[in-house]
Design goal:
The chain is α+β, with helices and mostly antiparallel strands. It is built from ten helices and ten strands. It has three domains: 164 residues, Regulatory protein AraC (Jelly Rolls), CATH 2.60.120; 48 residues, Arc Repressor Mutant, subunit A (Orthogonal Bundle); 54 residues, Homeodomain-like (Arc Repressor Mutant, subunit A, Orthogonal Bundle).
């Protein structure tokens, strides 16, 4: 087993960390986590990580430098270190921070972080609603002590931590009038693309986003030049086109796979958008 041990933290009043590593062959993989009360001026870097590392500032202050920018951080803020990025961070001289961290990677790591707008270009997040962030770190510490099921519990802890960030981000979005409309539209599109294969209504979509149906439809059309219903139908038909390439699937199979219980309704909508019936589309695709 490859162990990634971080002995950089020398001057501190409290520390606990248990490094851990797995090959990145899963959606999310836990590496290590811990907590530290830093000494005044304690720093790390400039250095590069090969995984994602998130710090949550419990108290105190410090600075974080990445992508040529310096961020002054305080309690309740999160900063993200992304793979391959040169970063530096340092505790304040007068009010050094106490922070917790979790390191992880995986095929879905970047996607999960984008959902809360944490990226290389936007590495800092402020949590006015702390949700269960602290309890998720406690859960990770408890999981380290397990003898059986430890790996699964630690991986589950990463999912719980990220879900807390999503919950906090959703709360900020719902309570801030200054949030760009594009964020609401992005959330709506992600919901539709994940749920297109089942029956769903625009009312359900609006409820999930936390907006009035009429307001959601208005801003969606303003941003995309089409209604949510039009976007959903077009997305379903694009997925249907891909499924039609599989000749083992009947039109009825494909209809149900893209959210239509009635193959006739599906066929009429497909013909309206594509100018060909599903069967004719399949024949034409087979000749190309």
């Amino acid at each position: 087993m490859i162990r990634i041990c971080d002995w950089r933290r020398r001057h501190m009043a409290e520390k606990f960390e248990l490094p851990y590593y797995q090959q990145v062959n899963a959606d999310l993989v836990y590496y290590y986590s811990g907590s530290e009360r830093c000494a005044p001026g304690h720093s790390y870097g400039p250095a590069v990580r090969h995984y994602y590392l998130i710090h949550y500032v419990r108290s105190g202050h410090g600075i974080f430098r990445a992508s040529g920018k310096e961020h002054t951080l305080r309690a309740g803020q999160i900063f993200l270190i992304t793979p391959g990025e040169v970063t530096y961070y340092q505790a304040d001289l007068d009010d050094p921070w106490h922070y917790s961290w979790v390191a992880f990677d995986g095929m879905e790591a970047a996607s999960c972080l984008r959902q809360v707008d944490l990226t290389t270009d936007s590495p800092v997040m402020t949590l006015t609603r702390h949700v269960n962030i602290l309890s998720s770190f406690d859960m990770l510490e408890d999981a380290k002590k397990l003898s059986g099921g430890r790996d699964l519990r630690l991986t589950g802890g990463v999912y719980i931590f990220l879900s807390c960030l999503l919950e906090a981000a959703a709360g900020e979005l719902a309570h801030s009038e200054s949030k760009p409309r594009e964020l609401y539209v992005k959330a709506a599109i992600e919901f539709m693309e994940k749920n297109f294969s089942r029956r769903m209504s625009i009312e359900e979509l609006a409820s999930y986003i936390g907006l009035n149906r009429s307001y959601l439809c208005a801003i969606f059309k303003e941003v995309t030049q089409q209604s949510p219903q039009q976007y959903l139908i077009r997305y379903r038909m694009e997925r249907a086109c891909e499924l039609l390439e599989n000749v083992s699937l009947s039109v009825g199979d494909i209809s149900r796979s893209v959210g239509y219980d009635d193959p006739l309704v599906f066929s009429k909508m497909f013909t309206k958008l594509k100018g060909l019936s599903p069967r004719d589309y399949r024949k034409q695709a087979g000749r190309t």
